[in-house]
Amino acid sequence: MVDIVKQPGRLRRAPENFLSEAEIKAVGEGRRDFLRKSFLTAAGAAMAVPMLARASEGDANILQNPEWTTTLGQPVAVRPYGLPSKHESQLVRRESPGLTRVGAASVSFAPLQGMFGIITPSGLHFERHHQGWYDIDPARHRLMINGSEPAFVKQAKVYNMDELMRLPSVSRIHFIECGANTGLEWGNVAVPTVQYTHGMLSCSEFTGVPLKLLLDDCGVDYRKARFVLAEGADGSSMTRTIPMEMVESGEVLVAYGQNGEMLRPENGYPLRLVVPGVQGVSWVKWLRRIEVGDKPYATKDEAVHYIDLLPNGQHRQYTSVQECKSVITTPSGGQALLDKGFYNVSGLAWSGRGRLKQVDVSFDGGINWQAARIEGPVQNKALTRFNIGWVWDGKPAILQSRAIDETAYVQPTYGQLRLVRGTKSIYHNNAIQSWKVDESGEVSNVQVL
Ligand SMILES: Nc1nc2c(c(=O)[nH]1)N[C@H]1C(S)=C(S)[C@@H](COP(=O)(O)O)O[C@H]1N2
Ligand SMILES: [Mo]
Description:
One of its GO terms (biological process) is sulfur compound metabolic process. By secondary structure, the protein is an alpha+beta fold. The chain contains 9 helices and 25 strands. Strands 1-25-24-23-19-20 form a 6-stranded antiparallel beta sheet, with no helix packed on it. The site of molybdenum atom has 6 residues, from loops.
């Protein structure tokens, strides 16, 4: 194995200048607790010997009855709406003080390092608000559908929530990723944890009405109206253009359901647009209006924001589809391996162009690759969980994952991405993420070109 850690020029250390010292410490402590717990239960074979040894030394947790075996438990419905265990209180959305915060416009990141499978619990779904969130009264919420010219629709209509919820519904699992996810890594401002590098990512089962059904209901002239403008009810005047082909595919939903219940207020209650595969900004929350038109609208959120600055100084607009990407979530930056031996390396992969085909994992910074186990069923434009067993020999290692989607697109290295995109972008960074494990087992964020 080539020792990539010693190869000059291929490795850069994260400056970790993104959080305050105190915060890095707090986050780190929580995560280490998490790791200890999960590896004790999950790492079966490797942990069996030390556990037996402890029992024979008189482990009080085995020899004495804990209070929960000898007393009455809590009755039902003490908490009419269930909550996580108090022992999991570290696993929360976190805001980064390093990101611009203007009033209520901010981001909270999902704690990917502690999540399993592919569904994001609704209370841990990341949040991105340009002007804060509202808990809108559904009885007063309306959705209007109109044309930029009267001839584009037979009849403009306004729907209330009751009317929308009577229509035929579908339920589908999709990921949502903010276009700015992993944005700080462009400038090699590597941030310490996967929560902050990749946590503007979530995946839910959404329930709602295909937008096509509503447009049909209004009698849209699809030969003339080739674009849709979606508008939110919040003060940010959030508006995005969506090409009509996406709507005609039947994938775009006007959704009210998320993971089996109504949307959470932070995520657009009572109505949001679901635009599978497309960056989060087009998933307009508190959706109040859909206009059909014959050209892209060039609104502020697509002409000025959410554009990609290229090395030649030109701006690229309407780069909406989130390209194929993956990240190892455990172990990841800020966590620590406790001992040599077996670890289940686990992560997430996704593509805005459809289904995942393969995920490869490297333990030596991208020199050798092995196919990871993909946990099926692999779904269209949804997160996919991958796992692979690894025996850590106690030496420095660099863990990477590389996803390939059904179009045969391969997730790029930082070197490949920078060649095309430069370093001045904010949005659409889908490069291969590297986590370095040092001799002490500490895991940190590094970039391999
Ligand atoms: N009305 C409205 N819709 C919005 C936003 C907003 O600020 N207002 N933020 C957008 C952005 S930039 C993203 S990334 C996603 C975030 O969705 P979430 O908060 O449910 O994670 O919502 C999008 N829809
Ligand atoms: Mo976003």
